[in-house]
Amino acid sequence: MPTRIACFFSTSGHSGVDRAAGHLIPALARRGYRVDLLKVRRHGPNLPEIPPGVRVIDLGSRHTYACLPAIARYLRRERPAVLLSDKDRVNRTALFARTLARIGTEIPTRLVFSSGTTISIDLATRGPLERWVQRNSMGRLYPFADQVIVTSAGVADDMAAYTGLARHLIRVVPSPVVPESLFTAALPRPDHPWLGDPAAPLILSAGELCYRKGFDTLLRAFARVRAQRPCRLMILGRGGERDTLLALAAQLGVADAFALPGYVPEPYAYMAHADVFAFTSRWEGLGFVPIEALAVGTPVVATDCPSGPREILADGRYGPLVPVDDDAALAQALIATVDHPLPPERLREAARPYGIEASADAYLNALGLPPCPE
After folding, report:
1. Are 152 and 190 in a shared domain?
2. What contacts 105, CB < 8 A, 6 or more positions away?
3. 107-128 pLDDT, tens per residue?
4. What is the Cα–Cα distance from 153 to 285, expressed in whole angstroms?
């Protein structure tokens, strides 16, 4: 029988996990594996197309924990080689389901947990009960998995320090971010007058308009840059802080050079025709958008937040790192990068490990499977 991989996720439908799963699942199927996406109703990931070799299995409930009996039945019936899950509640459910499935029978399925967030920071604003549950779940239950994988070394170090999970049990696997075609694509310039204007360089950013992304700091840095030279700032995305950012731009006197076009599903063309990409998060698990900007040859300036940018930019070799919330340092780095950008071919080097095919190979290795099924 063909080697089968089961993927159990329960996501918002528009998160980094959704994007990674949308890239990883087809890549695994292209290699000849049978892939089952175990689906919690009304939750992501939502694959735009179901590729050959992939099945979407409705688990029959809208609630993650309520899917436990269905997953156990699936494991007994299908006996996949690996069950891959992501995020703590889902990981716990996967562990309990495998335990239940193994009662009275031999289920060979390997269990691989994934996590993509800097857990100590992510839980800092949660209630004490949720912090206690997740911290103890990771520290005491994750050793029963066959492998724990995370998106960056910073996430791994934080997980070990915060939960007590042994660091050697945690493995860093690069996320599948970049389609291979993006490294060589000639992307047409979007129909926007700010793109390709040499008289006013464009600073671009993208992400949910929320506190975590640090766009308020970016606006203050932009005001400093614009006081010295003509330039413009555009942030792609939507979120609850849209009106706050527009008000701040007006207060800083830069509203006429600031744009919020909204959400763009594939921002690659905008990135390719911007002069610099600014990544200003206060914390992350990795950060996909700076990788995408690098893949199209656009220089990146990033905050040295936990976690991801320092690894992506190789300690600053592929772009400057600045302290979180330091708008003065950010402004200086933006000016220096616009004046002296690295060659596009060198910038693409930084994104290569996050190519979908390279990442799929790394995932298979972490799952304990060969590049192609035997």
Report:
1. no
2. 76
3. 889 999 999 889 999 898 899 9
4. 10
